[in-house]
Protein backbone atom coordinates (compact mmCIF):
# COMPACT_ATOMS: atom_id res chain seq x y z
CA UNK A 1 0.00 0.00 0.00
CA UNK A 2 2.78 2.43 0.89
CA UNK A 3 4.57 1.88 -2.42
CA UNK A 4 1.33 2.57 -4.32
CA UNK A 5 0.81 5.87 -2.50
CA UNK A 6 4.44 6.82 -3.18
CA UNK A 7 4.20 6.03 -6.91
CA UNK A 8 0.99 8.07 -7.26
CA UNK A 9 2.72 10.90 -5.43
CA UNK A 10 5.70 10.66 -7.80
CA UNK A 11 3.42 10.93 -10.83
CA UNK A 12 1.69 14.06 -9.50
CA UNK A 13 4.96 15.72 -8.47
CA UNK A 14 6.38 15.07 -11.95
CA UNK A 15 3.33 16.48 -13.75
CA UNK A 16 3.50 19.54 -11.50
CA UNK A 17 7.05 20.31 -12.66
CA UNK A 18 5.88 20.51 -16.28
CA UNK A 19 2.80 22.56 -15.37
CA UNK A 20 4.90 25.03 -13.34
CA UNK A 21 7.35 25.52 -16.21
CA UNK A 22 4.49 26.22 -18.64
CA UNK A 23 2.90 28.70 -16.21
CA UNK A 24 6.10 30.52 -15.24
CA UNK A 25 6.49 31.99 -18.73
CA UNK A 26 3.04 33.58 -18.55
CA UNK A 27 2.82 34.96 -15.01
CA UNK A 28 5.18 36.12 -12.27
CA UNK A 29 6.36 33.37 -9.94
CA UNK A 30 5.47 35.53 -6.91
CA UNK A 31 1.83 35.60 -7.95
CA UNK A 32 1.87 32.00 -9.21
CA UNK A 33 3.35 30.70 -5.98
CA UNK A 34 0.62 32.41 -3.98
CA UNK A 35 -2.08 31.00 -6.26
CA UNK A 36 -0.63 27.51 -5.93
CA UNK A 37 -0.35 27.45 -2.13
CA UNK A 38 -3.78 29.08 -1.74
CA UNK A 39 -5.26 26.28 -3.84
CA UNK A 40 -3.29 23.86 -1.62
CA UNK A 41 -5.30 25.04 1.39
CA UNK A 42 -8.67 25.15 -0.37
CA UNK A 43 -8.28 21.76 -2.06
CA UNK A 44 -6.93 19.94 1.01
CA UNK A 45 -9.61 21.59 3.16
CA UNK A 46 -12.28 20.22 0.83
CA UNK A 47 -10.67 16.78 0.94
CA UNK A 48 -10.66 16.87 4.74
CA UNK A 49 -14.35 17.83 4.85
CA UNK A 50 -15.09 14.88 2.56
CA UNK A 51 -13.06 12.65 4.89
CA UNK A 52 -15.18 13.81 7.86
CA UNK A 53 -18.43 13.15 6.00
CA UNK A 54 -17.46 9.77 4.55
CA UNK A 55 -15.57 8.19 7.46
CA UNK A 56 -17.25 7.50 10.80
CA UNK A 57 -14.18 7.52 13.06
CA UNK A 58 -13.64 10.85 14.86
CA UNK A 59 -10.45 12.89 14.55
CA UNK A 60 -8.57 12.71 17.86
CA UNK A 61 -6.14 15.54 18.59
CA UNK A 62 -2.41 14.67 18.89
CA UNK A 63 -0.30 17.68 20.00
CA UNK A 64 3.04 16.26 18.80
CA UNK A 65 1.67 15.26 15.40
CA UNK A 66 0.00 18.65 15.04
CA UNK A 67 3.28 20.44 15.82
CA UNK A 68 5.26 18.29 13.37
CA UNK A 69 2.79 18.91 10.53
CA UNK A 70 2.96 22.66 11.15
CA UNK A 71 6.77 22.62 11.17
CA UNK A 72 6.74 20.62 7.94
CA UNK A 73 4.73 23.46 6.41
CA UNK A 74 7.52 25.90 7.23
CA UNK A 75 10.23 23.79 5.64
CA UNK A 76 8.36 22.22 2.72
CA UNK A 77 5.28 24.30 1.87
CA UNK A 78 7.02 27.65 2.34
CA UNK A 79 10.83 27.52 2.14
CA UNK A 80 11.26 24.43 -0.01
CA UNK A 81 8.50 25.23 -2.48
CA UNK A 82 9.42 28.90 -2.99
CA UNK A 83 13.05 27.98 -3.71
CA UNK A 84 11.96 25.15 -5.99
CA UNK A 85 9.66 27.43 -8.00
CA UNK A 86 12.53 29.84 -8.64
CA UNK A 87 14.91 27.04 -9.59
CA UNK A 88 12.42 25.58 -12.12
CA UNK A 89 12.22 28.94 -13.91
CA UNK A 90 16.03 29.32 -13.96
CA UNK A 91 17.21 25.75 -14.52
CA UNK A 92 14.25 24.19 -16.32
CA UNK A 93 12.07 21.32 -15.07
CA UNK A 94 14.38 18.38 -15.77
CA UNK A 95 17.46 19.90 -14.12
CA UNK A 96 15.55 21.37 -11.17
CA UNK A 97 13.85 18.04 -10.46
CA UNK A 98 17.24 16.31 -10.49
CA UNK A 99 18.42 18.57 -7.67
CA UNK A 100 15.23 17.73 -5.78
CA UNK A 101 16.06 14.02 -5.78
CA UNK A 102 18.99 14.87 -3.52
CA UNK A 103 16.60 15.46 -0.60
CA UNK A 104 16.88 11.81 0.58
CA UNK A 105 20.64 12.30 0.59
CA UNK A 106 20.33 15.38 2.79
CA UNK A 107 17.93 13.49 5.05
CA UNK A 108 20.53 10.79 5.50
CA UNK A 109 23.35 13.31 6.05
CA UNK A 110 21.33 15.15 8.71
CA UNK A 111 20.88 11.89 10.59
CA UNK A 112 24.63 11.28 10.30
CA UNK A 113 25.50 14.76 11.63
CA UNK A 114 22.95 15.10 14.41
CA UNK A 115 22.21 11.49 15.41
CA UNK A 116 25.81 10.17 15.25
CA UNK A 117 24.96 7.67 12.51
CA UNK A 118 28.03 6.53 10.55
CA UNK A 119 28.56 6.15 6.81
CA UNK A 120 29.40 2.73 5.42
CA UNK A 121 31.65 2.35 2.37
CA UNK A 122 28.57 1.88 0.17
CA UNK A 123 26.94 5.00 1.58
CA UNK A 124 30.08 7.10 1.14
CA UNK A 125 30.37 5.88 -2.45
CA UNK A 126 26.74 6.86 -2.96
CA UNK A 127 27.49 10.39 -1.75
CA UNK A 128 30.28 10.72 -4.32
CA UNK A 129 28.05 9.39 -7.11
CA UNK A 130 25.27 11.86 -6.23
CA UNK A 131 27.69 14.80 -6.16
CA UNK A 132 29.08 13.75 -9.56
CA UNK A 133 25.57 13.57 -10.98
CA UNK A 134 24.61 16.99 -9.63
CA UNK A 135 27.74 18.55 -11.12
CA UNK A 136 27.03 16.92 -14.49
CA UNK A 137 23.54 18.41 -14.53
CA UNK A 138 24.51 21.90 -13.30
CA UNK A 139 27.81 22.33 -15.21
CA UNK A 140 27.57 25.13 -17.76
CA UNK A 141 29.96 24.50 -20.68
CA UNK A 142 28.93 27.69 -22.52
CA UNK A 143 31.06 29.81 -20.20
CA UNK A 144 28.31 32.21 -19.13
CA UNK A 145 27.98 33.76 -15.73
CA UNK A 146 25.68 36.35 -14.24
CA UNK A 147 26.94 39.10 -11.97
CA UNK A 148 25.18 42.22 -10.74
CA UNK A 149 22.27 41.52 -13.06
CA UNK A 150 24.42 41.50 -16.22
CA UNK A 151 25.02 38.38 -18.29
CA UNK A 152 28.36 38.12 -20.06
CA UNK A 153 30.08 35.60 -22.32
CA UNK A 154 33.62 34.88 -21.19
CA UNK A 155 36.29 32.71 -22.77
CA UNK A 156 38.04 29.89 -20.96
CA UNK A 157 41.10 32.09 -20.52
CA UNK A 158 38.97 34.81 -18.93
CA UNK A 159 37.49 32.17 -16.64
CA UNK A 160 40.96 31.29 -15.43
CA UNK A 161 41.64 34.94 -14.69
CA UNK A 162 38.26 35.57 -13.06
CA UNK A 163 38.48 35.99 -9.31
CA UNK A 164 36.93 33.75 -6.68
CA UNK A 165 33.19 33.36 -6.82
CA UNK A 166 32.82 34.66 -10.39
CA UNK A 167 34.81 31.75 -11.77
CA UNK A 168 32.80 29.19 -9.81
CA UNK A 169 29.55 31.01 -10.56
CA UNK A 170 30.33 30.65 -14.26
CA UNK A 171 30.57 26.87 -13.89
CA UNK A 172 27.33 26.49 -11.99
CA UNK A 173 24.11 27.60 -13.63
CA UNK A 174 21.95 30.24 -11.90
CA UNK A 175 19.34 28.50 -9.80
CA UNK A 176 21.56 25.61 -8.67
CA UNK A 177 22.09 27.07 -5.19
CA UNK A 178 18.36 27.72 -4.84
CA UNK A 179 17.58 24.16 -5.89
CA UNK A 180 20.02 22.73 -3.35
CA UNK A 181 18.67 24.90 -0.52
CA UNK A 182 15.17 23.88 -1.52
CA UNK A 183 16.23 20.25 -1.39
CA UNK A 184 17.57 20.68 2.15
CA UNK A 185 14.32 22.35 3.23
CA UNK A 186 12.32 19.51 1.70
CA UNK A 187 14.50 17.01 3.59
CA UNK A 188 13.66 18.73 6.87
CA UNK A 189 10.02 18.77 5.84
CA UNK A 190 10.12 15.04 5.12
CA UNK A 191 11.59 14.30 8.54
CA UNK A 192 8.89 16.31 10.33
CA UNK A 193 6.11 14.84 8.17
CA UNK A 194 7.33 11.34 8.89
CA UNK A 195 7.37 12.07 12.63
CA UNK A 196 3.90 13.57 12.40
CA UNK A 197 2.25 10.71 10.51
CA UNK A 198 3.76 8.11 12.85
CA UNK A 199 2.14 9.90 15.78
CA UNK A 200 -1.11 10.98 14.10
CA UNK A 201 -2.33 8.97 11.10
CA UNK A 202 -4.19 11.82 9.37
CA UNK A 203 -2.45 12.44 6.02
CA UNK A 204 -5.13 14.75 4.61
CA UNK A 205 -5.22 16.87 7.76
CA UNK A 206 -1.41 16.84 7.83
CA UNK A 207 -1.31 18.16 4.27
CA UNK A 208 -3.87 20.82 5.14
CA UNK A 209 -1.95 22.01 8.21
CA UNK A 210 1.31 22.24 6.26
CA UNK A 211 -0.34 24.13 3.41
CA UNK A 212 -2.09 26.53 5.78
CA UNK A 213 1.22 27.27 7.50
CA UNK A 214 2.83 27.99 4.14
CA UNK A 215 0.07 30.43 3.12
CA UNK A 216 0.18 32.28 6.44
CA UNK A 217 3.96 32.72 6.22
CA UNK A 218 3.72 33.89 2.63
CA UNK A 219 1.13 36.54 3.53
CA UNK A 220 3.12 37.71 6.56
CA UNK A 221 6.57 37.80 4.95
CA UNK A 222 5.88 38.62 1.30
CA UNK A 223 4.42 42.04 0.59
CA UNK A 224 3.53 41.07 -2.99
CA UNK A 225 1.43 38.18 -1.69
CA UNK A 226 -0.88 40.64 0.03
CA UNK A 227 -1.51 42.32 -3.33
CA UNK A 228 -2.51 39.15 -5.15
CA UNK A 229 -6.16 40.19 -5.61
CA UNK A 230 -5.28 43.27 -7.63
CA UNK A 231 -2.66 41.34 -9.61
CA UNK A 232 -5.16 38.65 -10.60
CA UNK A 233 -7.38 41.18 -12.38
CA UNK A 234 -4.81 41.65 -15.14
CA UNK A 235 -3.23 38.19 -15.01
CA UNK A 236 -3.23 35.76 -17.92
CA UNK A 237 -6.29 33.51 -17.30
CA UNK A 238 -4.49 30.44 -18.68
CA UNK A 239 -1.55 31.02 -16.33
CA UNK A 240 -3.92 31.32 -13.37
CA UNK A 241 -5.53 28.01 -14.29
CA UNK A 242 -2.14 26.36 -14.68
CA UNK A 243 -0.97 27.56 -11.26
CA UNK A 244 -4.27 26.42 -9.74
CA UNK A 245 -3.72 23.00 -11.30
CA UNK A 246 -0.20 23.08 -9.85
CA UNK A 247 -1.70 23.68 -6.42
CA UNK A 248 -4.02 20.68 -6.72
CA UNK A 249 -1.20 18.45 -7.97
CA UNK A 250 1.26 19.44 -5.26
CA UNK A 251 -1.10 19.06 -2.30
CA UNK A 252 -2.37 15.73 -3.63
CA UNK A 253 1.21 14.56 -4.06
CA UNK A 254 2.09 15.70 -0.54
CA UNK A 255 -0.89 13.86 0.95
CA UNK A 256 0.11 10.72 -0.97
CA UNK A 257 3.68 11.02 0.28
CA UNK A 258 2.53 11.50 3.89
CA UNK A 259 0.21 8.49 3.58
CA UNK A 260 3.07 6.38 2.21
CA UNK A 261 5.24 7.28 5.22
CA UNK A 262 2.73 5.54 7.48
CA UNK A 263 3.27 2.19 5.74
CA UNK A 264 6.91 2.25 4.59
CA UNK A 265 10.10 3.89 5.94
CA UNK A 266 10.35 7.65 5.43
CA UNK A 267 13.60 7.29 3.46
CA UNK A 268 12.01 4.80 1.02
CA UNK A 269 8.90 6.95 0.54
CA UNK A 270 11.09 10.00 -0.05
CA UNK A 271 13.30 8.12 -2.51
CA UNK A 272 10.32 7.00 -4.62
CA UNK A 273 8.53 10.36 -4.63
CA UNK A 274 11.66 12.34 -5.52
CA UNK A 275 12.74 10.11 -8.43
CA UNK A 276 11.16 12.69 -10.73
CA UNK A 277 13.78 12.77 -13.53
CA UNK A 278 12.61 9.32 -14.58
CA UNK A 279 9.32 10.93 -15.64
CA UNK A 280 10.16 14.63 -16.00
CA UNK A 281 12.96 14.24 -18.54
CA UNK A 282 10.85 12.37 -21.15
CA UNK A 283 7.81 14.55 -20.39
CA UNK A 284 9.88 17.72 -20.79
CA UNK A 285 11.39 16.42 -24.02
CA UNK A 286 8.09 15.61 -25.69
CA UNK A 287 5.66 18.13 -24.13
CA UNK A 288 8.01 21.14 -24.07
CA UNK A 289 9.76 20.14 -27.31
CA UNK A 290 13.15 19.94 -25.61
CA UNK A 291 13.20 23.68 -24.81
CA UNK A 292 15.90 23.03 -22.23
CA UNK A 293 18.24 21.41 -24.71
CA UNK A 294 18.42 18.19 -22.73
CA UNK A 295 21.65 16.39 -23.61
CA UNK A 296 23.15 13.00 -22.89
CA UNK A 297 25.19 14.71 -20.13
CA UNK A 298 22.00 15.82 -18.35
CA UNK A 299 20.45 12.38 -18.71
CA UNK A 300 23.64 10.66 -17.49
CA UNK A 301 23.85 13.05 -14.52
CA UNK A 302 20.25 12.33 -13.60
CA UNK A 303 20.89 8.60 -13.70
CA UNK A 304 23.98 9.02 -11.52
CA UNK A 305 21.92 10.88 -8.91
CA UNK A 306 19.29 8.16 -8.89
CA UNK A 307 21.89 5.38 -8.68
CA UNK A 308 23.73 7.11 -5.84
CA UNK A 309 20.62 7.74 -3.77
CA UNK A 310 19.33 4.25 -4.46
CA UNK A 311 22.62 2.83 -3.18
CA UNK A 312 22.47 4.93 0.00
CA UNK A 313 18.88 4.05 0.85
CA UNK A 314 18.53 0.49 -0.40
CA UNK A 315 21.92 -1.15 0.18
CA UNK A 316 22.75 -2.43 3.70
State the strand order across the main sheet.
Answer: 1-2
Calculate the mean pLDDT score and round it.
Answer: 78
What share of residues is helical?
over 70%
Beta strand %: under 5%
* Main beta-sheet annotation: 2 strands, antiparallel
Estimate nothing, just give the exact number of structural domains: 1
The number of helices is 15
Structural class, by secondary structure, is mainly alpha
Unreliable stretches:
143-171
Shape: globular
Give Rg in angstroms.
20 Å
Amino- and carboxy-terminal Cα gap: 23 Å
Oligomer state of the chains in this structure: single chain
Tell me about this structure.
- By secondary structure, the chain is an all-alpha fold.
- It has one domain.
- It contains 15 helices and 2 strands.
- Strands 1-2 form a two-stranded antiparallel sheet.
- Helix 1 packs antiparallel against helix 12.
- The longest helix is centred in the N-terminal third of the chain and has 29 residues.
- The relative contact order is 0.24.
- About 9% of the residues have low confidence.
Keywords:
77% helix, mainly alpha, 316 residues, single chain
Topology of helices and strands:
Elements: H1 2-24, H2 29-54, H3 63-91, H4 93-100, H5 103-114, H6 121-138, E1 144-147, E2 150-153, H7 156-161, H8 164-171, H9 176-199, H10 203-221, H11 228-233, H12 237-263, H13 266-273, H14 277-287, H15 296-314
Antiparallel strand pairs: 1-2
Helix pairs in contact: 1-12, 1-13, 1-14, 2-10, 2-12, 3-4, 3-9, 3-10, 4-9, 4-14, 5-9, 6-15, 9-12, 10-12, 12-13
Amino acid sequence: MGELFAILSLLMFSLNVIVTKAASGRLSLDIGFMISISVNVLFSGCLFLIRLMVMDDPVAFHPFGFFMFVISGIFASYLGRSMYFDSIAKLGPAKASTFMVSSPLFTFLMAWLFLDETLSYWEFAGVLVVLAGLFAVSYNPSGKYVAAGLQEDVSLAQHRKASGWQSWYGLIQPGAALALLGSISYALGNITRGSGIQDWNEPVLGGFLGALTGVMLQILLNKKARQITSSLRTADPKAVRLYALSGMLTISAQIGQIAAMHYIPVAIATLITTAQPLLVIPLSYFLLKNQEGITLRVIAGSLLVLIGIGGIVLLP
